[in-house]
Structure formats: C-alpha cells, structure tokens
Amino acid sequence: MKYYKALEKTVSILIIAVILIAAVAAVIWYTTQQQVPEASPSPTTIIKTETQVQTQTQVQTETQTTIVEKMFIRFAGWSAGETEMKNYQRIISLFEQTNPNIAVKYEVITQMFHENILASYGAGVAPDVFYLDTSWAPIFIDKGALYPISDLVSQDFINQFYDFLLEPFKGPDDKLYGLPKDWSMLMLFYNKKLFEQAGLSSPPDTWDELVRYAEIIANKTGKPGLAIYLGGFNRYMPVALSNGASKPWFDDPSDASWFDNPVVKDTMAWYINLYKEGKIERENKGLTPYAVAPQDVGAGWLGDAFGKQEVAMVISGNWMIPFLADQYPDFKFGEDWDIAPVPRGSQGRVTMVYTVALAINAKTEHPDAATKFVEFVLGPEGQKELVVKMGHTLPSVRSLANDPDMWPQHKKSLLFQYDQYQIFLWGPKTGELESKISDVMASAMRGEIGIDEALEAMKQVVQQVLSE
C-alpha cells in the first residue's frame, strides 16, 4: 500500500514537471515569435506579418538595385540652333539604347556658357560632361576642374584624332583634358540669286572685293550685301593674318604691343569701318546699308540672317550648313546658295579653325559612365551618326574624312586651300580676352569711340587681364 502511494506521488510529480516544462516551452516559443517581426504592430497574425516583412525586403532590395545599376549623368552644351539640339537628342537616345544602365540628361546653356559652368562648380552642381571651347581650355585646366581624359581612355582611342585638334586641350603636365567632338573652319556663304540680280557671277576673291560686292548688291537689290557680328575679335583675325600680321599670343602684359603693329592698326580700322561706314553712314545718307549685324534684319545670328535671305553674304563655319538644311529646306545648296573660301589678303588666304572638346568634370561621381558616353559620341561610330550623316560639322576622327556619307557642302569646304589655319586660341586667357576685346570693337563699330581710342583700349584690356 505504501508502495502504491509512493508510486502515485512520483507520477504526480512527473506530471507536474511535464506540465511546467511544456508551459515554459510555450512561453519561449511565443516570445521568440514576437521578436522576429520587430516592426509588426500586432502579434495576432504571425504568418501574415512574416509575409509582409518579406515583401518589404524584396521591394527595398529591388529599389537599391535600381539605384546602383541605373546611373544618371548630365551633359551640357550650347547650341547652334534647334538642329544641333535635335541631333544630340538623337545620339543620346542611341547611347541609352546600347547602355540601358546609364541615363543622360541633356542641358543647353544659351548664354555665357563657360562662365556658367565655372559658377556651377562653386555650387557643387557642375555637369558630368560638357563642351569645352579651345579659348577656355587653359582656364579650366588651370583650375583643376577637369578629369584628365588621357587617364580614362586608351592611347589607341586618342590616336584617332587630328593632332592639331588635340593641342589646345593639353595641360602643362602633358595630359589631355578634352577630346575634340568635331571641327569647323570659316568660309564665305553667298546667295546665288541675289548675286545674279546684282549682276555678279562669282564670289569675291579678296577683302576689298568683299566690300565692293556688298555695296553693289545693296544698291541693286535693296538687300544688305553682308552681315557681320558687332565685335568678334576671332572673326577679324583672318583679315589681320592674311595681310601679314603675326599670330597673336597673349600671356604677358607686354604682349599688348601686338596692337601697335601697323598691319593690325590698318586691318582693325578696315574691319570696324565695315559696319561704321557700311551701316551707320549709309543710313545717314538714306541708302540701303551694305553691311549689317544680324539683329538689324530681325535675325538672332548669321545663320538666320542668311537663311531668311535678308543678306547676300556671311562668313561663318560648317555648323551653319545643317542649320540651313533643317530650318530652310527650300533654300537649296548649289541652286540658291553656295560656299567659297574666305577672301584673301595681300599676304595670302587665312581661315579660322574651331573645335570644341567634350570634357569630364574632375568631381564627377560617375567617371566610368561619363567616359563611356564620351567614347560613344566621339568614336568613329558616334561621329559617323552625329557628324557625318547628320551633317553636323567636320569629323575630328581622321578616318572619316573621306566617308561616302559626308554631305557635299562639307566635302567642298575641305577642298579649299589656305596658306594658314589659325586655331581659336591666343593665350591662357583667350576666352576672357576675346570677350573684352570684342566689346571694345563693338563700341567702335557703333561709333561710340574712335578707332585709335579703341586700339588703345584693347591694349589696356590685355595688360589688365594678364596682370591679374
């Protein structure tokens, strides 16, 4: 009897122990399940809560993947008109199709381009890739604003370009800070029908003929013979150099003496008088002006003035060719208008050469993506699409010079023979000097100051800028 009582007591203890262990296990299990979904507002539906957490994790993972893989870069340029903007939108679309993980935002800055780009560095919002004119390259290089592109692309890629187009973008460390996207030269555009009306059968060959032809056209057709910009030191340069002036190079205040050269004085007076005598004095006499600025005929730039057929001649670059084809398709090359070399001076024929590089921001967060974009736009395939097929300008890649798809207008310009080609660069502060000297020229062309006063002011500009 004692045995059964002891056994019963033992069994009872065991049962109580099992119950206690089960209770503790239940509490632990319940507590563990509550700790898994820390963000869960309610423990009532454990399975549902786990599913929500898993879905949120997937969404977050997908979002993070998108941010990592989809890179956005900004590309800034100025525009020669609606045509150029449309052409770049097209090439950007082609790039994004072949590089789906990179998106490019195209930004057009219409005024004070380089000044605005420099200012954007201070605000920390400079674009990743942007145009860089030869005249401003030394300033950007000196400020450390550019990524050495020769550190990003292969030498084989660099070797595709014309050597003379690379020179303006080299730094004092011999590294390359930009690659030329294309190039252009100045040439004479003339309206064949207005020439016929004026009894002229061929374009002017010399600078003196240019003025004489412009006056004949104004007298016989009632249309100005020539449109020029007010100012434009670089547009004056072929006149000076073709008449024997030395190539200017301003890197010291003493280099202002270039304006003391008798040839410079004579040619500067000739250029200023194109407008002063051809516009102001002619109108004072009640005559049709033979020289005007684009705004005088309701145009924004030379391309519009010529395309609207408000003037018979302009001296401009290859960039005007696609603009005319796009904006004035009924104004036909070969039938209505044609091109000829820049007029010659007493010492030969000289033209200006312009090139613009694509440069990469030294502080870009996406150097690899920016490099891919630059290589796509500037490589043979990109230039064939953007420059050759679209007739943008002249390709900077040598292998495309004889491409069968090159527009006949551009092909013809490459046949012109010049004694000298002057790249738009005359010192480390070319951009600032060009702007300030041009302002002085414009003031003289409007008759606000005399020619001698203007020449002295130009010297002072050089001295002041290079003394800073």
Features:
D-Maltodextrin-Binding Protein, domain 2, 468 residues, alpha/beta, 2 domains, globular
Question: Biggest sheet, open or closed, and with what strands and sense?
Answer: 6 strands, mixed
CATH superfamily of the largest domain: Periplasmic binding protein-like II
How confident is the prediction overall: mean pLDDT?
87
- By secondary-structure content and strand pairing, the structural class works out as alpha/beta
The end-to-end distance, rounded to whole angstroms, is 119 Å
The overall strand count is 11
What percentage of the residues does DSSP assign to strands (E)?
5-15%
Helix content: 40-55%
User: Total domains, how many?
Assistant: 2
- Tell me the radius of gyration: 35 Å
Shape: globular
Number of helices: 18
CATH-derived topology of the largest domain? D-Maltodextrin-Binding Protein, domain 2
Low-confidence stretches: 1-68
The helix/strand series, from N terminus to C terminus, equals HHEHEHEHHHEEHHEHHEHEHEEHHHEHH
Please state the second-level CATH architecture of the largest domain.
3-Layer(aba) Sandwich
**Class of the largest domain, according to the CATH hierarchy?**
Alpha Beta
Oligomer: single chain
